[in-house]
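Hi everyone,

Forwarding the result from last night's run.
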Amino acid sequence: MSTLVKQMQIAYAPETITATEQEGVRAELFVNLVTAFHVTLEMVIEYGWQHESDVLFKIRAISFGDLLRVRTKTRYITEKLFETRSFVYQVIDVDGTRPARRDWVHTWEGADCLFFVASLAGYNRCVVEDTSANQMQESLQLFKTLLSLELLKATAIVLILNKLDIFKNQIQKHPLKTWYPDFVGREKDYEAALSYIVAEYKATKSPHDKREIQVYYTDATNIETCQATLRDIEDNVMPRIPKIH
């Protein structure tokens, strides 16, 4: 399950987080710590070993923070139903890996809104399946492909640029211009870099496509900021969707 869908579950249906899911988080956390030293280091620095060992050895219960921060892979296609004060969301969460993409189209017929989540931190990172490919370049191409699909022509588009906190720090050490030579902003100006990236995503839309792309910035593991984003989407994006169809 993606982090954004976990945030929706916490916001709209926390009571549906089962004991089985909690134990799954504990198991995934153990895998994170054992198989990826850099993840271990991040966790030790941010939370302290005592915090993590308490979770692993069942001294305390799984928290919402644990649920969000544990690294889990979205497998296949999952579906969740969330009821809010104004809407009922039928959320279809898809595996973003290359082999899984061919199955996406079968799940989207009649979709009202597409949430496209992209990592801002990907501008200088490679694709897992292909170390010669840049994450953000692949994301931009994928976004362009989705916008052009006839099946989604009447679907509202929400672009969620995630990992803003990491991006702010990353841009200080790894200038955007190294990977995007046409960027003309100041080297460590994250706001200029952010504006450039947003423009790159918006430029993938056809001139004939009259839809407005709604853009949000999040740190998906931060409950407060992500919940504020979800509220804004519910208040300002979702009510306009019936006018699109």
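The first strand starts at residue 77 and ends at 83.

Cheers,
N.
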